[in-house]
Amino acid sequence: MNLLYQSQRAMRAKREEAMRRGVIAVLDIGTFKIACLVLRFDETDITPGDGIGAMAGQAGFRVIGASTTRSRGVKFGEIDTVQETERAIRTAVQGAQKMAQTRVDHVIVALSGARPRSYGLDGEITLQTGSVEDGDIASVLAACDVPDIGHGREVLHAQPVNFSLDHRTGLSDPRGHVGSRLSVDMHLLTIEAGAIETLLHCVKRCDLDLAGLASAPYVSGISSLVEDEQELGAACIDMGGGSTSLSIFMKRHMIFADTVRMGGDHVTSDISHGLQIPMPHAERIKARFGGVMATGLDDREIIELQSETGDWHHDRRSVSRSELIGVMRPRIEEILEETRARLDAAGFDHLPSQRIVLTGGASLLPGLDGLASRILGNQVRLGRPLRVQGLPQSACGPAFSACVGLALFAAHPQDEWWDFETPADRYPARSVKRAVRWFRDNW
Amino acid sequence: MRPLIAHRGPVHARPVAEPARLHRDPAPSRLTYRVQRLWLTPLFRALLRVGLPSFAVIASLLWYATDEARVHALQDQVAEIRREIEDRPEFRINVLSIEGASPAVTEEVRATLALDLPISSFDIDLAALRNRVEALPPVASASVRNAGGGTLSVEITERVPALIWQSRTGTALIDAEGNFVADIAARPPTEPLPMIAGQDADLAVAEALALFEAARPLGERLRGLVRVGERRWDIVLRDGPRILLPAEAPRAALDRVLVLHDVQQILDRDLVRIDLRNPGQLTVQLTAPAMETLELQRAGLVPVGDERG
User: Fold this and answer.
1) Whether the complex's predicted ipTM surpasses the cut of 0.90
2) Is residue A348, in this structure, part of any structural domain at all?
3) Is residue A3 assigned to a domain?
4) Cβ contact (<8 Å) for A87 and B37?
5) CATH of segment(s) B89-158
6) Do the chains contact at B28 and A90, CB–CB below 8 Å?
7) Omega of the bond prior to B3 within 30 degrees of 0, cis?
8) CATH number, domain at A173?
9) Among A231, A19, A227, A217, which residue's Cα sits nearest to residue A110?
10) pLDDT digits (tens, 9 = 90+) for A339-366
């Protein structure tokens, strides 16, 4: 756990350094595309006032460079072929740097895959003094008993979600309150360590410093859920290319995140299989003619199919749009049902608010909201990311919600476990032990 | 007969169609990527855009300056260009105009300046020329200026001769301040000038002029003044006694003599000199016949007061 502290703190320090320099890049490594934004942080911080809302913290920075490239070597939101991914990252970063006309050294990366797993922790301490101090928060966080997260897994987020003091609960900041027993609920998100190491390798090969890591469902929830949804409770479903990730927000904190390892690419491959056409063409007709609800008109809309097998009859076939929808729909339903199962497992039914926001590139499919409301419940809407300053029009769609959320995350990261000081009573014992061991080893 | 077995050439392998290369998306190579990042570094950019050119310029200048011959050649070239500009007709001086001087002095000034006309105005040192002209004896002051249009204008104020000074070395004209103007043979005065003589007489010209002013009643009888012992004056008359004036207050003494002359015609008397050097007493020296007559009178042989007529 100490190692985690150190590496996460090192990343925080790098983020601070980037803030001082004023330029930072955010990189969303997805299965379908890799997007890079270069952010410039200005001193002019607009304070909420007359006529100006809180602006969700997006006022402090400006996007000065944006670039997207087709992703390669990424599967299910995890890096599969390191060299290819590295080339793709280079392409994206170079394009964004060129647009920004500046060099970036620090990058914050979002990961969508790598099998995230959520844990709810709680800890409780008896307060020494009457009121809650900074040290007490660190102590109560340290008092959380960490579950066995399994071998080869790494903690990605560990966010205190709720503090309670005696009989009061729902405190977001207990400091200064008077009480005797302080307890905390914490959300811990772990992912596979191998994915992080591969990512680190790729980033290092691109001469960049990793200034932070975030989970893609978390950041896309930040950008596409509006404030009351974050406050009252909602689920954000980011339908990406290789994976569909979902996150549940409550009281402005993420309380659950999971990933379904199916996405838009599987729909494309179904089309490719079913209609016997190459993948690029399948992708194209999916984007152009795809849908989930067949109507009578769709029977008459004929789509020319193209393939290059050399067989004249095979290469010149055509299907109606309703046939295409018939190929696509079962897979979409499967994805949504799987998502439903994950939400149910997380206990989403018991939340006071049942809102669901669909975002991500695959949510652009026409008629998806209708299908989703049948499966997920009737409070479904399509979400688009928040508008941030300087973002080009081409990067405003729902496919970029993780990217924009990452920018917001870079500007205003949430307090995590490692942002609090280690309680003093745990630290010296180990360091003394280490010093003794060092002496024994060396003398 | 043609061979029955057909000779086949070497069997050429059919070009095997290359397997369609896996399509790879374009991506910058690591080198390109690094170079671009380097280029986007502000410090590096500044260094390359400002530092490198200035370094190249300075280095080439230094390299050029290390070879003396090249520097000399450059200097010669610069000098030649300068020469060419200076020699342009716009800067040339063709005419020397000298104003305010008599013809003799004009010639003298022209000879002194010794300008080899035409000459470039850059080669003329006006202050030095002025000093040279003012060093000439007959010139009181001069102004030298480039009047434009290729003319060098010299305006001269001449010294005015006030006295004739006769000394052991010769007879010269001097002005009212005692400065040498010219030799009397070189410039014979157009009007009669009072005359002085004696060593260092030119140092007391002001006193001499005052005495001449006071002695105006003597008119034509006044021959001149003689400086004696570098301290006092003698008045020499054409027909009459020599008046020895004192060093102190000579003018008062002269006035006294003139008063005596008005009353008693002392200057018409038979005297060799009137000595006023002792302010307390006036001494006269009689001529030899007068002395004889005086002795006869004292002896009573000749009646007193006849000589007046």
Assistant:
1) no
2) no
3) no
4) no
5) 3.10.20.310
6) yes
7) no
8) 3.30.1490
9) A217
10) 999 999 998 888 888 899 999 988 989 8
